[in-house]
Amino acid sequence: MLFKVAPDFSLRNSQGEGMDLSRFRGKYLVLYFYPRAMTQGCTREARDFSRLLGEFKELRAEVVGISPDPPERLAKFREKYCLEVALLSDPDLAAAGAYGAIEEGKILRSTFIIDPARTIRWCRLGVRVPGHAEEVLEILRGIRAADLGLNPAIRFRRAYRALSEEPVPKELVQRLLEAAHLAPSCFNNQPWRFVVAEGESLEAVKEALPGGNYWAKRAPVIIAVASKPDLDCKLSDGRDYFLFGCGMAVGNLMVQATQMGLIAHPIAGFDPQKVKAALKIPGDFVVITLVVVGWHGDSGYLSEKHRALEFSPRERRPLADVAFWGYFGHEGGSG
Ligand SMILES: Cc1cc2nc3c(=O)[nH]c(=O)nc-3n(C[C@H](O)[C@H](O)[C@H](O)COP(=O)(O)O)c2cc1C
């Protein structure tokens, strides 16, 4: 159940208003399913979550209870016990079913933590009420602390060269292309064009690589990224956006590849005319980059320099050299 996209729901709250998952956009959501309002365990659970609601809100979380009770009964329940949490009515157990919180046709007391990206990050099926709300709060604190760190797919992405020759299934390449195509672009112009080299065209692209990019010849997949200026906005002061758009798309593709355990290494070292000829890309297009894609493999065939780079720490200038606060060139900072 963990790390699945949270199923959507469409339910009514205690005031009879419709509520679905999109109402909680940008927030964490603690969704707890309970069998019946006003009963002892369910009252304790609702009161415990209500008492801690302020602390949940500090973590940018909302807490929502779901049961089969009709909205009117939920309204009475909230009023009688001064409950702060939102309560939703799931009369036919549609939401409970979608979350797998049902046993023998009845609600199984269960709690889910959903993150702002709508991923279920934690769940417990078969909850024991005493201490449960406190435990969920602690778990959410841990999740939130991790989420405020650097995105792991950004942190661990590198321009690796130690490729395996193992093929990459077509559907996974398709997923990389979908990720790239979901990038934003000026006026949604989507200036990127991708050509996945395959078979003879892949071999011909490899002929366009210079000696320094020998390592890319092992790649099972090479994706050419092409565009031209009139496929995107051309604004004042030299703001031609086609290159920018393609860069955003390749950025998405690389993050997606890292998440999938793949290397996606963009290169500029190739003969563009040969690549265009190999892939039948029209002459007025610019082949901006080739993205070399494959599984991680043995570094044995790499040059000494490249092998060293493969295991070297990330090199970047100090952030203060490139990021300024207030004015260009101004270091600013926290002091
Ligand atoms: C536009 C572009 C062109 C690049 N061209 C090559 C290339 O031709 N050959 C190569 O081995 N690496 C190439 N790289 C990889 C960079 O050298 C690498 O991203 C950079 O050294 C930073 O390392 P990191 O990506 O591991 O953080 C290129 C990267 C980009 C974004």
What would you say this structure looks like, in words?
- This protein is α+β, with helices and mostly antiparallel strands and 335 residues long.
- The protein folds into two domains: 10-147, Glutaredoxin (3-Layer(aba) Sandwich), CATH 3.40.30; 155-314, NADH Oxidase.
- It contains twelve helices and 15 strands.
- A seven-stranded mixed β-sheet has the order 2-1-5-4-3-8-9. Strands 10-11-15-14 form a four-stranded antiparallel β-sheet, with helices on both faces. Strands 6-7 form a two-stranded antiparallel ribbon.
- The chain is elongated.
- The two termini are 44 Å apart.
- The structure holds flavin mononucleotide.
- Flavin mononucleotide (FMN) binds next to β14.
Secondary structure elements and their pairing?
Layout: E1 10-13, E2 18-20, E3 28-33, H1 40-51, H2 53-58, E4 61-67, H3 71-80, E5 86-89, H4 94-98, E6 102-103, E7 106-107, E8 110-114, E9 120-125, H5 132-147, H6 152-155, H7 170-181, E10 193-197, H8 200-207, E11 221-227, E12 234-235, E13 239-240, H9 242-259, E14 262-267, H10 272-279, E15 286-295, H11 304-310, H12 319-322
Parallel strand pairs: 3-4, 4-5
Antiparallel strand pairs: 1-2, 1-5, 3-8, 6-7, 8-9, 10-11, 11-15, 12-13, 14-15
Helix pairs in contact: 7-9, 8-10
Bound molecules: flavin mononucleotide.
Residues 158-159, 213, 266-269, 289, 314 line the site of flavin mononucleotide.
